[in-house]
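Hey, I'm writing a tutorial for new members on how sequence and structure tokens pair up, and I'd like a real worked example in the thread rather than a made-up one. If someone can provide the structure for the chain below, I'll link this post from the tutorial.
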Amino acid sequence: MPRIPGRRGRLQDIPVVGHKRVLLAAPRGYCAGVDRAVIAVEKALERYGAPVYVRKQIVHNVHVVRELEEKGAVFVDEVDAVPTGAHVVFSAHGVSPAVVAAAADRELQAIDATCPLVTKVHREAVRFARDDFEILLIGHDGHEEVEGTAGEAPDHVTVVNSPDDADTVVVRDPEKVVWLSQTTLSVDETMETVRRLRVRFPQLQDPPSDDICYATQNRQVAIKKVAEKADLVIVVGSANSSNSVRLVDVALEYGAKAAYRVDYADEVRQEWLDGVETVGVTSGASVPEVLVQQVLEDLAGAGYRDVEEVKTAEEDLIFSLPKELRQGRDGRADGRALGGRTRS
């Protein structure tokens, strides 16, 4: 296991006016799709041995990627970097049909760890394109998930990056337009984008069900409750994790006096705690709980030993593993075929 950065006792316990405490958001951390994807890589390594190749980061978290690399996973940008005939795992963010075809051309043994909620959006894109709708895909241009979804219907998809983009986007037929979204966006910002799109295109159709994933929404709801009482919010998550970055934005929007994102506990700075009575803590949907616990340990050393969990939802959703990994080498059903880590 790679070393987790951090130095116990490095934060000082400096007195503040009032009572020091931590409000710990729940739900936080791993969602079902991330759990499934990480276990898929672990099981592929167990089944086939190292190396197992993974296109892009399996999930957007520095620590998870480093752990899997130490176990024998090799992360590549594109499938043309994978040796012919080798095993390759597609990340939780999904891939376009062009990537699937490229893997087949190289005779790769592909394991699709795409989150089922992302797969749902892909299917919606295919269906609406088949009916000749123009699809306004709300998301971040260049994000792997957006590239994968857009790749399902490239002639029908226009990416809308922000509410401001909604004011300038051009469509062929305003009577036949639908919106879809990246699953890890800010709920509030997405709805504002939709509102502004509907002003311009009154016939804009909604997707058949909410595209923003349950975990993204739940983590945002929880941090809203925490932020209104927090002097400081610390979000554990990586810089390329959209949902982690959005948690910082949401915390500031809903009342936190300051909010920062960290990958590891040793990134928390002493000056952030100056005069701070209440610290809110949460983590993105691709973050293992051990990283949150390290932050709590460091905060305890600085006097923030009173930890109150603020729970706004229960999560019990699990997804079955990719079909290639549901059985052990002996042919019997694997005990982890439905995911299986405890999550907060």
